[in-house]
Design brief:
The chain is α+β, with helices and mostly antiparallel strands. The protein has 2 domains: 67-173, no CATH class; 179-553, Porin. It has 12 helices and 17 strands. It has helices at 3-8, 12-32, 49-57, 80-90, 109-128, 137-149, 151-174, 245-248, 291-294, 317-320, 349-352, 407-410, and strands at 180-194, 213-224, 231-239, 266-275, 280-287, 326-334, 339-348, 367-375, 381-392, 412-415, 418-432, 435-448, 455-468, 476-490, 508-517, 522-532, 543-553. The protein has a 16-stranded antiparallel β-barrel with strand order 1-2-3-4-5-6-7-8-9-11-12-13-14-15-16-17. α5 crosses α7. The longest helix is centred in the first third of the chain and has 24 residues, at 151-174. It is elongated, with a radius of gyration of 32 Å.
Length: 554
């Protein structure tokens, strides 16, 4: 057979397979770019562009012997005769598993190059079969032009595949664990307060004696997956950021990430998540199973490592802050992209782990029963309707409002056994790519469970404005204005003829911050906030808090 004929055989299969494979590759690329509103998400393996191209090729079925086998190809299609010729003359066409050709899909030059490379396999088969007079001269000329035009892309594709194999081998050789990923973050903060201390004690101790503080919080996060869809989260923490309640006379000044009672390095979270079905996810944890883990808080632009610094501004405190670290279980069920339900029962993990004693054990400990229906009528708007029942035993050191708000709101009946019914309305509206409006309103009915039959009403609310990519991509600015938890009515009297534990006035929380993205791992956030009439008492002067936070993540 002449050299001309052998070269001739290189033409048609390549042209045909390029036309066939690349629409399928383009289809795979389009599919992966679709997004769904964030709610309950199971972890999925990361897929690179090269892997997507390779995976899409595996979706093609075997050889098609007649163009009529392709259900989406009609005799009226402009390319029908070309497809028919490729099938009947060369027997080198394949379709999708559903019997379609998908000929209208767009493709990139890289995708065409991938399909052209795959066509060489068919070329080898035709050469081996010694089939003569199979192609025409014009086909050979077309193929030669295609080979010349896409030679750089084919070479680059081969180089990228070689590089990917080398990188994969390096990752496998140096990875922390075959099942566990190590993450971490560190927060440095320099802060000070200004203004007289809230005088909520008998002594005249309103003089501001606070000093500038420099503290940190560091965390090592171990994320372990045993099936590729589950995740065990283990967090080790160390924290020296002070709780400002004592120094300022009010919990309204607290930071969102200040220290608790633990010292040194401690286990701050241990939670396991796994899918129960396609639409249902389960969380189980003996340590720090908080509502913010299993339910959308609808304040992602303001809360978190890159958002507001204050404790109150993070999210609705009476709904998403139980007042203790939780041990229990939660369920998230996604009815559709527009509706999902979150349910949970958690108990104080310290009390839940004790086998004896009053108020101990998983069922008798301080606990919450959580429920929230999240509705997303559009990709821009999310609304959350929450109901949370809380119970706290006598003299268990509890607070009803998650460590913020007035002293009366945290303990309307002092340390007598208390139950609360908490209702929350939260919303988040992405008005544009650079402007997000959010907020919440919380309404709490508290009932004294031990002693006299007393009731109290507590409210709180906030409006938040966020400006993503403000001045520079990756930065964010924000404003928060709100009313920290306040007791509006209360039947309880600590002593006969004593004043009720009811807040006489109204405090405002005003906060502004700007987070500057230095790079993917470092962000700097200057922030300040002011509390007017601290403790909802006009007799107290405003307290200002200024802070500079630097966050490192890896």
């Amino acid at each position: 057979m002449s050299k001309f004929l052998w070269n001739y055989l290189l033409v048609i299969p390549t042209v045909f397979y390029g036309l066939l494979f690349l629409p399928s590759v383009a289809n795979a690329d389009v599919t992966t770019q679709e997004t769904v509103p964030t709610k309950i998400i199971s972890p999925k393996p990361v897929v690179t562009q090269d892997q997507e191209s390779a995976n899409s090729l595996t979706e093609i079925t075997g050889q098609v012997t007649s163009v009529s086998q392709l259900s989406d190809v009609r005799p009226t299609d402009w390319a029908f005769q070309a497809l028919q010729s490729l099938v009947e003359r060369y027997g080198a066409i394949a379709g999708y598993p559903d019997g379609t050709f998908k000929g209208n899909r767009a493709l990139t030059r890289y995708e065409f190059a991938a399909g052209l490379n795959a066509a060489l396999d068919r070329l080898s088969e035709l050469i081996a079969s010694n089939t003569a007079d199979l192609v025409k001269k014009e086909d050979l000329e077309t193929l030669q032009k295609l080979q010349a035009e896409f030679a750089p892309e084919l070479q680059q594709l081969r180089a990228r595949l070689d590089s990917l194999e080398a990188r994969t081998a390096e990752v496998e050789a140096n990875q922390f664990s075959t099942t566990t990923k190590l993450l971490g973050d560190a927060v440095f903060i320099v802060a000070d307060t200004f203004g007289d201390r809230a005088n909520n004690r008998p002594a005249n101790d309103t003089k501001d004696d606070t000093q500038t503080v420099f503290g940190y919080r560091s965390r090592l996060i171990l994320q372990t997956s045993f099936t590729g869809k589950d995740q065990l989260s283990t967090i080790l923490s160390s924290n020296t950021i002070p709780n400002l309640t004592n120094s300022t006379g009010t919990a309204m000044t607290r930071f969102t990430f200040d220290q608790g009672t633990e010292e040194g390095v401690y286990l701050s979270q241990l939670v396991y998540r796994f899918p129960l079905s396609k639409n249902a996810t389960i969380w189980v944890g003996p340590r720090a199973l908080q509502p913010a883990i299993y339910a959308p808080t609808l304040n992602s632009s303001i809360g978190g490592l890159n958002g507001a610094v204050s404790r109150f501004a993070t999210f609705n405190p009476t709904v998403y802050r139980p007042g203790f670290d939780g041990a229990g279980a939660a369920l998230g069920y996604k009815f559709s992209n527009q509706v999902q339900l979150s349910l949970a029962y958690t108990a104080d993990n310290t009390q839940a782990s004790r086998a004896s004693g009053e108020g101990n054990g998983f069922a008798d400990a301080n606990n919450i029963i959580f429920s929230q229906l999240t509705i997303s009528p559009s990709r821009q708007l999310d609304v959350g309707l929450a109901y949370v029942h809380k119970y706290f035993g006598t003299r268990t050191g509890f607070n009803l409002t998650g460590g913020t708000g007035s002293a009366f709101a945290r303990n309307p009946f002092e340390q007598n056994s208390t139950s609360t019914d908490n209702f929350g309305l939260q919303f988040n509206w992405r008005a544009s790519r650079r402007f997000v409006v959010g907020g919440w309103f919380g309404y709490t009915l508290a009932h004294q469970e031990s002693g006299p039959n007393n009731d109290a009403t507590i409210i709180n609310g906030a409006l938040t404005l966020a400006f993503p990519d403000l001045f520079k991509e990756g930065n964010i600015g924000g404003f928060i204005v709100g009313v920290p938890p306040k007791v509006t009515s209360n039947d309880y009297r600590p002593r006969p003829n004593a004043a009720s534990r009811e807040d006489p006035d109204t405090s405002l929380h005003l906060e502004a911050f700007y987070t500057f993205r230095v790079n993917d791992n470092v962000r700097v956030t200057p922030t300040f906030y002011v509390i007017t009439s601290p403790e909802h008492n006009d007799a107290n002067n405003a307290i200002w808090v200024g802070a500079l936070r630097t966050t490192f993540s890896f």
